Structure formats: C-alpha cells, structure tokens
Amino acid sequence: MKVKEYNLVITGVGGQGVLTAANILGWAALRAGYKVRMGEVHGMSQRFGSVVSYVRFGEEVYGSMVPEGKGDVILSFEPVEALRYINHLKEGGMVVTNTKPIVPVQVSMGQARYPSLEEIRKVVEEDFRARWIGFNAEELAIKAGHAITTNTVLIGALTQIPEFPLDEEHVREVIRLSVPPKAVDMNMKAFDLGVKAAKELLGL
Amino acid sequence: MAKVTDMVLWDKPGEKVLLLGNQAIARGALEANIAVYAAYPGTPSSELTDTMAIVAKKAGVYMEYSTNEKVAFETALAASWSGLRAMTAMKHVGLNVAADTFLSSVGMGVEGGFVIMVADDPSMWSSQNEQDTRIYAKFANVPVLEPSSPQEAKEMTKYAFELSEKFKHFVILRTTTRSSHARGEVILGELPEEIKAGKRKFGKFKKDPRRFVDVPENARRFHPLILEKIEKIREEFNDMPFNWIEGNENAKVGIIAPGLAYAYVKEALHWLGVENVKILKLGTPFPVPYGLLEKFMDGLERVLIVEELEPVVEEQVKTWAYDRGLRIPIHGKDLVPRVYEMTTRRAVKAISEFLGLPTPINYEELDERYKKALEIVPPRPPSLCPACPHRNSFYAIKKATRARGIYPSDIGCYTLGVLPPLQTVDTTVAMGGSIGIAHGLEIAQHGSISEEQRKKEKKIIVATIGDSTFFHTGLPALANAIYNRSNILVVVLDNLVTAMTGDQPNPSTGQTPHGPGKRIAIEDVAKAMGADFVAVVDPYDIKATYETIKKALEVEGVSVVVSRQICALYKIGQMRRRGMKWPIYYVDEDACTGCKICINAYGCPAIYWDEEKKQARIEPSMCWGCGGCAQICPFGAFKPVEGGDE
C-alpha cells in the first residue's frame, strides 16, 4: 500500500505560507509511518522573493531536495511560480496552482512581463506533458474566513489528485492539530473548499 | 501539535519527531549535557542558536547571543577550559571572524568537550562566498564531523563532545544549508538528569600559564602536540559509528561518499539500479581514517569520490594511495563539479559517467525545455518588506545626495538596497565592512581632513550599516575613521533586532532571551568615540530623515545618523500574534496621475502597476500600513482605508 518514493515541490512567494504547508504535509507523512525528508531555504530568500520547499517521503528517500525530473506534484501558491522550479517535475506529473498572481516589482517597473495564465498552462501541459489544476485559492480562502488559509485550501485540493498517497481525513486531522484552536473551523472550511474545487476540476 | 522547540526538550526517549537538522543538533547538545552555548546568528546556522535560546533556561544551560563569532568562540572556549561542555555555532564566514582565536588557541586544547558548529552554504543561498570549512579544519588540524541525515546530526553532536574530551581537542561539526535546513525524522534519546531538572552547571578554571598564555615559548610546544593529536584521532576514526563500508564487498569499483554526499549517492545508485559497487560512507572528511580506507580499497580497481566543493577527501585519498604505491584510477573533481552544491543529478551524472551507464533521464533535453519555460518567467528576487524602514532611509539618502554619492553598505536585509529602484548600495564585502570601505574611498577620492593636500569637495560617501552589524565589527572601523579624520556619513539602519537571520536580539534591542540585558544606544557610542555630528531620526518621517541627512552632509568630519525604527516584519509578526490590526492604504483613482514615482523611485512590494488603468494600486494583503507611500506621492493619491484593516 505504501509508496516507495513520493516527491512534492511546493513553490510560492516568501510570506505566503509555503513553509507552513510543507510542515503540515511532512508531519502528515511521518504520522502515516513514512520516512520523511524536507528541504527549505531560510534567510534572505524569504523576503518576498520566490521560495521553494521540498517534501519527500518513502523508503528510498535520503536527500532533502526533490531531484530534477522526479517530482510527482508541484503545488504552487502563485501561478508563475509553478514554472520556476518545473525542472523538478517528472513527465506525467501534476501542477496544482493558485491562479491569483502576485506581480513582482520588476514587472510594475516595466522591466519584465507577467505571462498570461494560458501561456503558463501551455508550458506545463505541452512542454512538460504534465497535468494542470488551477483555481483561485485565495478567493476560496477569503470565503472560508481569511486569505491566510490559502495554503489550507491548496492542501485540500492536493489530497484529491490521483495516486496521492496520504489520506484526505488523515491530512485534515494534522491541520486540525497544527493550527491555533480558534482558527480550526476556518481552516476546516478552507480545506473543504479546496477538496471541492479539485474534485470539480478533476471531474470526480 | 506540540511546538518543535518543545519537542527538542521532550523527555520521551524513543519518540520519533520531525526536526530540522539544526534542531536535531540542539537536541544532541542537550543529550550531551551541554552547559554553555554562545553564538552570533548566521544563515544557515541560526535555528540552532534560536532553538537553544528558547530551551536553555528550562534546561539549565547558559545561552547567549554574542555580539560576534570571535567573542562567542572565546566565551564557549573559556567555559570548556573551566571544565564545562560548551558549544559555539556560526555560518562559514563567521569562522573567519573567529579565526584568530580559533587558530591561536587550538594548541591549548580543552577540558570540557568543546564543539564548534560551522554551517557552510554551497551555492550561496544566503552568503557572500562558498568557502569550505573542511579546509579550515585541515589548516588548524582539527577533526571535522559531517552528518548525512538529521538523526545522524543529533548523534554526531553527542559524539563530538565525547571525542573532544577524550583527546582534549577542538571538534568541528560541519553542516551545509541542505543538512541544517533539512527536516527529517529523529528518534529522541535520553536526556541527562541535570538537563531535565534544569540545573545550571558551574565550572572551575585551574590556572596553568604554560598552557593558557601563548607567548612564543609556550606556543612552540603546541604545534607538535596538535599534530600528534590529529594523527591519534585519524586512528580513532577507523572505528567509529559514522564511518562504514557498505554495498558489495567483492565489487571492483568503489565510491567514497563524505558527509551529506552519501544521501545523494544512495539515491543515485538506486535510480541507476547499480548494486555491484562498494561504498565508503565517511562522516569524517578530515582526517580520513587510513585504516578503514585501506580495508575499503582492498580489491578495488577504480574509485570515485563524490564530494561537494573542494577536493579535501580526494587529496587525502590520493596522497595515501601514492605513498602506498597504489596506482589505480581515483576520480573526483574530474567528474564532480568543484563549485556549487551537490545534487542527486550531479551524483547521477558522475556515477553514470564513471560506470559508463546512460542517465535515467535525458538532462540535456530537460535543460532545453526548462530554459524555454523560464523565458516567460519574470524575475522575483527577494525585496525589502512592505513598511521596511530601510526603504525610507535609502530613499532619503538618495534624495539628499541627489543620487551622486558613493554608497558602501554592509551585510543584512538592507543589502537588498542594491536592487532597483533604490540602488543605494555600491559595495558590500563582509560584516562591518561598510565603514572601512567608506573611509578608504574617502582617502582615495579626497584625502583625510588632516592632510595638507586634501582635495576639498562636498561630502559624498554615505555608508549604511545595521545595528547588529555595527556592534559586530562596525565599532573598530568607526573608531578608525574618526581617529584618522575621515569625512564620511555613516547611517546606522537601527531596526532594533538582527532582522535578516530571524529577529534575534542584540545590544541595540537591550533584551536577551532570558530577560533584560543592558541596552547600548548607538548615538552614545558615536558621541563617545568623537564623531563630529550625531543625530537620531525616525525613517517613518521621510522629510525629517532627508533634512537630517542633508545637515549631516554639511558637517566636515565623520557624521553618524542613527535611523531608528523597529523591523516591520518583526512588528507585524508581534501584532498578528496578539490579534492586532494595522492601517492599510489604497490608491485614490481620482488623484493618481500614473507618474510612477512610487514604483520607479520608492519600490514598495505592496504597490503594483495596473496596466489597464495606467495607475498605481496597492495589494491590500501586502500593505503593512507605514504610510511611506502617502509621504512620497506628490499628488496625495495614497490614502488610509477608513477604520483600518488587516
């Protein structure tokens, strides 16, 4: 029943809660009896720059970084960030992304261009032959009570993708135990909205 | 779920918890009954120090945030001399700061176990260079241990204290970003009774001037003593828990995997499906145990050393083989790059080339596709936070000097002032370097005030340095500039914490993790040193900051302006924890003319450009309410949202 190796790449912008999401998924894997490795970068890169976190589990996992071409899923908190580490995704992998952009200062200054969602999706589906689920997770998070639960919405969606090895209820329980007591209801609602969104997009 | 910092102190032997490499090391130090811990924070070592800061009091451990690595080193060393187990930690370049004490005192040895944790940063994720600490270890003849997993990081820490005591020698525990910042399962061990009881341990220093005074007569005895110790330790490493031989005993090919490279080698071999190979897993890259090496090399026809950065193990293995008359091919840096960090890909490529196998994926084709994908990805470098007081300081400095100054800066978040649109950082070298470079630039461009042939021009050199960096190594440089009659402006960006490494306290904060320390006011220091102009400003008042800087630039001599405002990230974190709200701003569409000053000169990440309406906009979830935009907008387009919000 247990997978030998599962590789998750979580990307986003510093301050969005990428590290928190990685921690929740790492704990969920540990509690499910897996050997776990996670990799993260602290320090200067956390200051509103692009961030990446790796969550890996299974018997054959040793290093903390998902090797290039071996990622099962990229879970992205921001659409363009889904591409920045796409070299880590395997062929036939999956991208689950929030579609609400955060425009970098360089784009506002006119020094760079922000691509359209369709362009991003095309790279994922055509060049990387990967599957794509994109939806506005922030909007759902606000519906659940606060934008801060965007990461919970995305984790909820993640649990619905085919062959995801961690059980939905198990992950939900870890979130319940991880967030402050007064934020539990809001996060459960966010999780459910993520589950629902993914189910619809996947046609489940 | 329990907080990780609580788990580090859990009295639950056998419990499996998820720990960061740095936290696992903290747990190891506690299991080893550490008494004194002193460090200056530096990525990627900081979480070890921060974890110790949280648990120390409960565990009866003395812990301090020292003002720099040299002082921290000396504090811990003296505790060890007093018979206590002591530890210091630093990032790789921190050892440069502590190097004088490190290299001068190594011959004196230790009493209580003394462990120096040094975190290297291959690929320079948060550093100015990628120096390899194992070379320092070789230079000083100090053994270095390097873990391959969080569990091993904990066990090695315990072992390091024992090793240090056994040989009365320093021990370096070397990590890298990928081991310090790797999280993995760790099985907790027993905690000593004293740690559980939170009982503070005290030592006793026994005078021995022949040992502790390094006059030449004594120092001459040290060098042979050091060499004798390191050879004994080399022998000790033949049989220790972190070095072993695995794989196929009868294989004709062998791979040596030091430190964390072992993890990548294991993954690569599994991916390549290679089994007919012998592996030497090395937890001690220096000194390489020759007895174990001999056993490993027996029967091998070809060897590959998969090593990150410098060929430290490779040179030892090749030296040993040459001396033995062993003439088999030994590969290393010919197949494994000497720059940047090790990855599974690098291990796969090196091993497949070594064994003549195809790689499991076509990397060239992947690179092609990836390169194409990146073409549409805009850059997103880190930036100063919304409401960061440094942005206002830089904005005022640039305006007051009409962007014609030379701007030496220093190590901290404010190094990000190099990026557009601020671009008010021209040099950054090392901790405290801003003032020395500023002084040198002034001497070179205009000369010192006391020189007869001085070229008299307006003061244009403005150094920026953070509060923590000022106390770290800025002090001697400021004394030098004042003493040698420089003509520079030093703006101390005082945000009251050591922000970039995680808001640790420093003398400007005044607080210590255990309660009030003694606060040192930077303006008092500058005045006492004899600066020619000293003022304190609040950068949240941009106009006042600008005017003060103008005034400081008119005074001949060394001017010091302390630009003081609490770190915005720290403040917002505190407010969030307390459920407090802050004001947020919005753009009045009737007032915004689309002049883009806020974007092209100020550059707050919460402000973005609405391409359709050709106007500035504020992303409400990113606005931290400093109101700086309202001060710099010539048209009054930024306005606070009524009632505020979070």
What does the model show?
The complex is a heterodimer of chains A (204) and B (646). Chain A contains eight helices and six strands. With 204 residues, chain A is of the alpha/beta class. Chain A has a six-stranded mixed sheet with strand order 2-3-1-4-5-6, with helices on both faces. Chain B is globular. The mean pLDDT of chain B is 96. Chain B contains 24 helices and 23 strands. Chain B has 646 residues and is an alpha/beta fold. At the A-B interface, helix 1, strand 2, helix 2, helix 3 and helix 4 of A face helix 8, strand 8, helix 12, helix 15 and helix 16 of B.
Described by the principal axes of the CA atoms, the overall outline of chain A is: globular
Which spans of chain B have pLDDT < 50 for at least 5 consecutive residues? none
> What's the count of strands of chain B?
23
Approximately what portion of the residues of chain A adopt beta-strand conformation? 15-25%
**Whole-number average pLDDT of chain B?**
96
- Quickly give the structural class of chain B: alpha/beta
Strand content of chain B: 15-25%
- Helical fraction of chain A equals 25-40%
Biggest interface, CB < 8 A: A-B, 62 and 69 residues
Report the span from N to C terminus of chain B. Answer: 26 Å
Number of helices of chain B: 24
Main sheet record of chain A: 6 strands, mixed
* Quaternary structure: heterodimer
What's the average pLDDT of chain A?
A: 94
**What structural class results from the helix and strand content of chain A?**
alpha/beta
Number of strands of chain A: 6
Q: Count of DSSP helices of chain A?
A: 8
Query: Could you state the order of secondary-structure elements of chain A as H and E?
Result: EHEEEHEHHEHHHH
